[in-house]
Design a protein that fits this description.
Elements: E1 2-4, E2 7-10, E3 14-16, H1 25-33, E4 38-40, E5 44-45, H2 46-50, H3 54-58, E6 69-74, H4 78-90, E7 95-100, H5 105-108, H6 120-133, E8 138-143, H7 153-162, E9 167-171, H8 185-192, E10 201-204, H9 210-220, E11 224-227, H10 237-247, H11 256-274, H12 276-290, H13 298-306, H14 310-323
Parallel strand pairs: 3-4, 3-11, 4-6, 5-6, 6-7, 7-8, 8-9, 9-10, 10-11
Antiparallel strand pairs: 1-2
Helix pairs in contact: 1-11, 4-6, 9-10, 11-12, 11-14
Length: about 325
């Protein structure tokens, strides 16, 4: 049984990764519904929280059905991170998570995110300040290192554990790799199997199928896996992995009716949370993913991303359901949302 502080997550929890401009409440809602055990907010800039910036503060929105949930923060200044953690704690999540893994230039090259992997004493000091500032469990998400010549992930794990974090998620790539190449899980396994590491270790990177989740579980011995890009437009990956781990059988793909129902639900929540204009705009990135692999979908996609009306988009989605009904084999009964 995997535990993070007082939080019980089951035998092999599936985590939803914190993804900028993706892991918002509407997206988290459909992932939770489909089986995600622990989710994190989009990463939030510490300086933005301290300045009470609207974009940063709205990322603190969490809902009871999402629990347990962690709020993830990032920044390069220790005092700012300390205060941001206290602000995040006031939103009453279950976990405060620190981002030591973001590889994008505007974050990492300023010493935040994966950039702090070039200064392990600072990383340890920052983490210690946050752990001591909040009462909630503190977790960390990181990468293997800045590049292949600076991989010190065992030392990173030991330093973080020593100052009190209660779980660690490791993305099996370096900052230099960004999201290219293959994630190296051998390093993740070294951390998990190290005799001095006793906190839960979650693996992240390239988990995109039930078969791979089971294979990596058995091969690398991690306590659970974090799923990011594979869940975009396909929240069903969580239920499919759980079913496969339990039965060894793969569920048939979601039906067209299910895809349309989830897309509508996602759109509705997006509009209610962000307002119609912004909600519609930010949903546009998801349509291709929800209906990936469907031939002759381009015309519908164009209409979906050009429409400024939630009602019109809903009607277009109904057309998609009608035109492509039965497109996926072994159609199942649509679930009620």
């Amino acid at each position: 049984m995997v535990r993070i502080g007082p939080i019980t997550l089951g035998d092999f929890p599936l985590l939803l990764a914190p993804m900028e401009d993706v892991s918002d409440p509407p997206f988290r809602a459909v992932c939770k519904q489909e089986g995600a055990d622990l989710m994190y907010t989009e990463f939030i800039a510490a300086e933005g929280l301290i300045r009470d910036a609207v974009k940063s503060v709205e990322k603190l929105d969490i809902y009871d059905y999402e629990r347990p949930i962690g709020i993830q923060i990032f920044g390069e200044n220790i005092e700012s991170m300390r205060e941001a953690a206290a602000i995040a704690e006031e939103a009453q999540p279950e976990i405060i998570d620190i981002n030591y893994g973001c590889p994008v230039k505007k974050v990492a090259c300023k010493g935040a995110g994966a950039g702090i992997l070039l200064d392990l004493p600072k990383m340890q000091a920052m983490t210690k300040e946050i752990v001591e500032r909040v009462k909630l469990p503190v977790t960390v998400k990181t990468r293997l290192g800045w590049d292949e010549n600076t991989i010190k992930i065992i030392e990173v794990a030991q330093r973080l554990q020593d100052v009190g974090i209660q779980a660690l998620t490791i993305h099996g790539r370096t900052r230099k790799q960004m999201y290219k190449g293959v994630a190296n899980w051998d390093y993740i396994a070294e951390v998990k199997n190290h005799p001095q590491i006793h906190i839960p270790i979650f693996g992240n990177g390239d988990i995109d199928s039930p078969e791979k989740a089971l294979d990596y579980k058995n091969k690398y011995g991690v306590d659970g896996v974090m799923i990011g890009r594979a869940a975009i437009g396909y929240p069903w990956i969580f239920r499919e992995i759980k079913h496969y781990l339990k039965t060894g059988e793969r569920l048939p793909p979601p039906t067209m009716l299910e895809r349309v129902a989830i897309a509508k639900q996602h759109l509705d929540f997006s509009v209610r949370w962000k307002g119609e204009r912004k909600g519609i705009f930010e949903m546009r990135r998801h349509y291709t993913n929800y209906f990936r692999g469907i031939q002759d979908f381009k015309t519908f996609r164009t209409r979906l991303v050009e429409s400024d009306s939630a009602y019109e988009i809903s009607d277009i989605l109904d057309e998609v359901a009608e035109k492509f009904h039965g497109y996926f084999s072994q159609e199942r009964l649509a679930v009620n949302f």
